[in-house]
């Protein structure tokens, strides 16, 4: 059995929990690289750590958009997560998609009854990368999801500054008939919550087309 993160052989006795959760089994070294966010002490709007009240950014989103996303994030975006996302997303090591499949599946249990929607890539970006980094992780959880949104052909987020991200035009259009989401609860899933602009664009479009509630879940914040 290999570590789902570094791919090195695991040579240790496994607990029952590890045996049943082997889809995201990490070695001790890799386990130490990820820092979980304590939701009890995080901003209820965006998941920012150590911000019990609605943080300043979320108060601004509430004023401009009229809602907050109630975003939950699995991990902090620290050095350990940065190394993982660079190897997985930008280098294209598809084997790393299972690094936290068990934790992701556990988090999704809080959203029973929601339509699960990973944020899409543009056709050009998907062609370059060969996979959607979010839906590839989701597929390992066996939880059904649907691409409710389609991304327009715009320049990638990673090439934009914070200010440019916040001013970005709507990058999405519906990929389904509006009846599909009318009066439904939707959970948007992305890899990293940075400014929140992309997730808010997705939520705004879904609300505009009749969604009852839109929340988000990200791998890191």
Task: Please outline the helices and strands.
Elements: H1 16-20, H2 28-31, H3 56-65, E1 72-75, H4 79-90, H5 101-108, E2 115-118, H6 123-129, H7 133-141, E3 149-151, H8 162-166, E4 172-174, E5 185-192, H9 197-208, E6 213-220
Parallel strand pairs: 1-6, 2-5, 5-6
Antiparallel strand pairs: 3-4
- Under the CATH scheme, which architecture would be assigned? 3-Layer(aba) Sandwich
Regions with little confidence, pLDDT below 50 for 5+ residues = none
Total number of strands = 6
Shape call = globular
Derived from helix and strand composition plus strand pairing, the structural class reads alpha/beta
Pfam family, one: Pribosyltran
Family: Belongs to the ComF/GntX family.
Organism: Enterococcus xiangfangensis
InterPro entries: ComF/GntX_DNA_util-trans, PRTase-like, PRTase_dom
Task: List its salient traits.
Rossmann fold; PRTase_dom; two-stranded antiparallel sheet; four-stranded parallel β-sheet; alpha/beta; PRTase-like; 221 residues; ComF family protein
Q: Mind explaining what this structure looks like?
A:
This protein is globular. The strands form 2 sheets. It has a 4-stranded parallel beta sheet. It has a single domain (16-220), classed as Rossmann fold (3-Layer(aba) Sandwich), CATH 3.40.50. Helix content is 33%, strand content 14%. The chain contains 9 helices and 6 strands. The mean pLDDT is 89. It has helices at 16-20, 28-31, 56-65, 79-90, 101-108, 123-129, 133-141, 162-166, 197-208; strands at residues 72-75, 115-118, 149-151, 172-174, 185-192, 213-220. With 221 residues, it is of the alpha/beta class. Belongs to the ComF/GntX family. It comes from Enterococcus xiangfangensis. This is ComF family protein. Residues 133-220 form the Phosphoribosyltransferase domain.
